[in-house]
Write a structure and sequence with these properties.
Distance between the termini: 55 Å
Strand content: 15-25%
Shape: elongated
Largest sheet: 8 strands, mixed
Oligomer: single chain
Number of helices: 12
């Protein structure tokens, strides 16, 4: 949520900011209801004050006296008035909150202007896209691919977008996850193993609701959601808490399977590992002091980049423009890895600063040393990293003439000294 005071006092600044995003919202409708809400609250408070005063006056009167009986009638009338005003306040509160939740975060001034993903800006490159295997091919065209990553049997067991990873391929995925977590620990992140289902309050706090209902799997019996990313449970770890300012910044990382219903279109862009309903990802999450959050964004981006460098995968950093940036985001970078077989860039990480937007929804604060009062923290997160497209690029860029895969050095130890992935397609 955006600070209410800012919404009320800097309305045009907020209006101009959110007009650059792709989300439609009526600030005027919200502010109208906001004014009505404040009026209802004022009426209820004034009625309660009259009720309290009448109660005090009645206590000083002799029971049964004409003045006492008259005051009883007055009390009954005031009590009915308080009850009515409280009911009106509760009703408008629901409408007010629903509108409040539709207002997206304002993009930071450094975010490039644009209407859609075509206006995103490449801000950095690493590695040589030509220095890959001369035998590079799309991962889904490798002759043994279905023996190592079985989509048809995944369809049989569950449905489209839920593959089985088999043998050394499963081991490779596990090795990558462990590598990502170990590197995060070296960078100061404490590892979490969080729940993979969350309630609606958690999804609302991080901005998935009310925005991405159609992308999440929901258990309608319990009202729980399968996590689309570990960002959701991890960010909510400190919900409704006040942390110590001296403890900031707080760094956490977590591995979870992630579940998204967005897959389902057809074509090469979603073939193989390019888009799945279930995938593995390590997430990096930060709670930081507002004064340092944009420095922390550059830091979390560097943490994610270092993983791709370790895997020796060429990549580029893309600054997401105002028309493509997410609902709760203030500023966002995407990391895109070069998949040499498909000859295109694949997004493998988003690194984002939400400023106080998520923390205000989640009521996560710190007590300021300067003022002694609670203030809202800033939250950030970054994928560090998502497995499927990183794995796709690793396979495509490192395939050898005999269709074996040369593994990057950083994974040799995790693979028990194995330097090459060989899949026997006769089994």
């Amino acid at each position: 949520m955006i600070d209410l005071q800012i919404l009320r006092e800097r309305t045009e600044w907020v209006r101009q900011g959110i007009s650059k995003k792709k989300f439609e919202v009526s600030l005027d409708a919200f502010l109208k209801v906001d004014g009505e809400r404040r009026e209802k609250i004022r009426h209820a408070e004034e009625a309660r004050a009259r009720q309290k005063a009448a109660n005090t006056e009645m206590a000083a009167l002799k029971k049964g006296s004409p003045a006492f009986l008259e005051k009883v009638k007055e009390m009954q009338a005031v009590s009915a008035e308080v009850k009515a005003f409280d009911q009106e306040a509760r009703e408008i509160e629901e409408k007010w909150r629903a509108l409040y939740l539709t207002i997206p975060n304002v993009p930071h001034e450094s975010v490039p202007l644009g209407k859609n993903d075509k206006d995103n800006v490449a801000v950095a490159h690493w590695g040589n896209t030509e220095a890959i295997s001369p035998y590079a091919m799309p991962h889904y065209d490798i002759p043994w691919f279905s023996k190592a990553i079985d989509f048809p049997r995944g369809v049989k067991a569950t449905g489209a977008g839920f593959p089985f990873y088999i043998g050394d391929m499963a081991r490779l995925v596990r090795s990558m996850i462990t590598y990502f977590l170990d590197e995060a620990r070296k960078n100061g992140y404490t590892e979490f193993l969080p729940p993979i289902v969350v309630n609606a309050e958690s999804a609302t706090a991080t901005g998935q609701l009310p925005d991405k209902e159609g992308m999440m799997y929901c258990d309608t019996n319990e009202g729980y959601y399968l996590v689309p990313t570990a960002e959701v449970p991890v960010t909510n770890f400190f919900r409704d808490e006040i942390v110590e300012e001296a403890d900031l910044p707080l760094y956490r990382c977590a591995y979870t399977p992630c579940f998204r219903r967005e897959a389902g279109s057809w074509g090469k862009d979603v073939r193989g590992l390019n888009r799945l309903h279930q995938f593995d990802k390590v997430e990096l999450v930060k709670w930081v002091h507002p004064k340092t959050s944009f420095q922390e964004l550059e830091s979390i981006r560097a943490n994610a980049e270092s993983l791709l460098q370790g895997l020796e995968l060429p990549y580029r950093v893309v600054g997401i423009c105002t028309g493509d940036i997410g609902f709760p985001h203030s500023k966002q970078y995407d990391l895109e890895v070069w998949a040499g077989g498909q000859k295109r860039w694949l997004e493998v990480s988003s690194c984002s600063n939400f400023t106080d937007f998520q923390a205000r929804r989640a009521n996560i604060r710190f007590r300021s040393k300067e003022t002694g009062k609670p203030e809202v923290v800033h939250t950030l997160n970054g994928s560090g990293l998502a497995i499927p497209r990183v794995l796709a690029a690793l396979l495509e860029n490192n395939i050898q003439k005999d269709f074996s895969i040369k593994l990057p050095k950083v994974l040799h130890g995790y693979m028990g000294g194995q330097t090459t992935l060989v899949v026997n397609d006769n089994k």
